[in-house]
Write a structure and sequence with these properties.
The chain has helices spanning about 185-200, 205-210, 245-255, 270, 365-370, 430-444; strands at about 5-10, 15, 20, 25-30, 40-45, 50, 65-70, 75-85, 90-95, 100, 100-105, 110-115, 120-130, 135, 140, 150-155, 155-165, 170-175, 200-205, 220-225, 260-265, 280-285, 300, 315-320, 330-340, 350, 375-380, 390, 390-395, 405-410. Strands 19-18-20-21-30-29-27-23-25-24 form a 10-stranded mixed sheet, with helices on both faces. A 5-stranded mixed sheet has the order 3-4-8-7-6, with no helix packed on it. Strands 11-12-17-16-14 form a 5-stranded mixed sheet, with no helix packed on it. It has 6 helices and 30 strands. By secondary structure, it is mainly beta. The chain is about 15% helix and about 35% strand. Strand 20, helix 3 and strand 21 (about 260-265) form a beta-alpha-beta unit.
Length: about 450
């Protein structure tokens, strides 16, 4: 490059630029927060040369600016780039799943976590500018009950961020195939109406909405699917079984969400990969009610498990447990869910430990627990402990992993009673209390 057409000095606000005469480039690195939209560089050139734009003229250096040096018939062009020193947090994730909102202008991070999250000890994973040092270090445990300060140190400067967390309102959802809750079939609609009346911030969501992306399951702490409609097949069908919907539910429970599956929805544990053994003993796919004024009460038996939280505050009865040929073995406690004289459809979805299909897999509750990873909790009211059938089961929360899933396939679990308005279910209180206990157990 001819020496007669060179930029020999270039500075902005007293900061000298680095001149590369081989590449014809000049780089100026300015302190943090410098406004480069209106700065007047001081430009020095070879003797006898002129430069355009001239030294001292205000320029906007948010992008490259070209300077041309002319000396007689010779000229050169320099590209000037101005960088303002900055270090940024680009990602902030709490407990491996809650993405914070980063504002690099205000130097703030806000994180919203589900209701009930223990903010006193959460993990924080931070991504930030290469070459910077972060304090506290990424991957550590912090207490977010109050704002926490993070400092990025970069090229001799500190960039301080304030991280705050808040808990969103607790939210509940009832999911179904119907586009809207008013279109739910009878028993499912009655179950949703009870949930809506008893839980603030309760929403109806459809499988179609999950599939098309208009529903985000992460917005909810507990989701209930009561799959009772007799015109459906026993197994879940599309769109509940569509890959994107199944994956959304897997992500939801793997993120810690609680899922309640009742009646034929219990089959969904297989779709979700919780266990490969479905509750193959399914029955009652009919609108024809059974029952009437002379039919006795129906309920569940959870002998040996009544200390579990889902069975608290229920009205208990004693029933004699029948042995072969009408011989009475002993009394056991039962919880009745349907009183006498109420029509019911007798729909059930359970694991039958007596059935030949499972004889080589599990024959007892203990074996079922070991094979499936669940906890068998209850059966029909006439089936005392040890249980012969598993109609109520919990797949417990895994620490730092999958959220809890509860299955209730008991034939006595019915809300609408075939639309029968002639009788009152005298055991409705137990039905509601059991359901509330299950949902409250899942939300913890």
């Amino acid at each position: 490059m001819p020496a007669e057409v060179a930029i020999t000095g270039f500075s902005i606000e007293g900061v000298a630029g680095t001149i590369d005469n081989d590449k014809m480039e000049i780089e100026v690195v300015l302190p943090p927060a410098t406004d480069v939209t209106m700065v007047a560089p001081v430009v020095e050139v070879s003797e006898g040369a002129t430069v355009t734009p001239p030294s001292g003229m205000v320029q906007n250096f948010t992008g490259p600016v070209t300077y041309t040096v002319v000396n007689g018939s010779l000229y050169n062009e320099y590209i000037v780039n101005v960088e303002v020193i900055d270090a940024m947090i680009t990602s902030f994730i709490v407990d491996g799943k809650y993405q914070g909102s980063v504002n690099n202008l205000a130097r703030t991070v806000t994180v919203t976590v589900p209701y009930g999250t223990d903010l006193s000890s959460v993990s924080a994973y931070v991504e930030y500018t290469d070459g910077a040092a972060l304090s506290p270090a990424t991957g550590g445990t912090i207490d977010l009950r109050n704002p926490v300060t993070y400092t990025l140190s970069y090229q001799g400067y500190d960039f301080v961020y304030t991280v705050t967390a808040s808990q969103r309102d607790e939210a509940f959802a009832f999911v179904g195939y119907a586009p809207h809750q008013t279109q739910l079939p009878g028993d499912e609609k009655a179950a949703f109406e009870w949930m809506d009346d008893n839980y603030a911030n309760c929403h109806y969501i459809s499988f179609q909405g999950i599939r098309d992306g208009s529903v985000n399951l992460a917005d909810y702490d507990v989701i209930w699917w009561h799959y009772y409609e007799p015109n459906y097949p026993f197994e879940p069908v599309a769109p509940a079984t569509d890959p994107e919907v199944v994956q959304a539910f897997k992500d939801y429970i793997n993120g810690g969400g609680g899922l309640y599956l009742s009646t034929f929805a219990c089959e969904y544990v297989v779709n979700l990969g919780i266990t490969v053994y479905s509750p193959f003993n399914k029955f009652g796919n009919s609108l024809d009610p059974i029952g009437g004024p002379d039919v006795g009460e129906w309920g569940i038996s959870a002998d040996g498990n009544y200390d579990h939280p889902v069975f608290q505050n229920l009205d208990m009865d004693f029933r004699e447990l029948a042995e072969a040929e009408g011989q009475w073995q002993r009394e056991h406690q039962v919880v009745m869910l349907q009183g006498p004289g109420v029509n019911r459809s007798n729909k059930g979805c359970l694991w039958n430990l007596e059935a030949g299909e499972t004889i080589e897999v599990f024959r007892t509750v203990e074996e079922w627990n070991q094979v499936t990873g669940g906890i068998g909790l209850g059966s029909f009211d006439w089936d005392g402990y040890p249980l012969q059938r598993i109609a109520l089961a919990e797949f417990p929360r895994i620490e730092n992993g999958r959220g809890p899933v509860f299955c209730n396939g008991a034939a006595s679990y019915e809300w609408w009673n075939c639309g029968d308005t002639g009788y009152t279910n005298s055991r409705r209180g137990n039905l509601e209390t059991l359901t509330k206990n299950i949902i409250d157990h899942l939300r913890k």
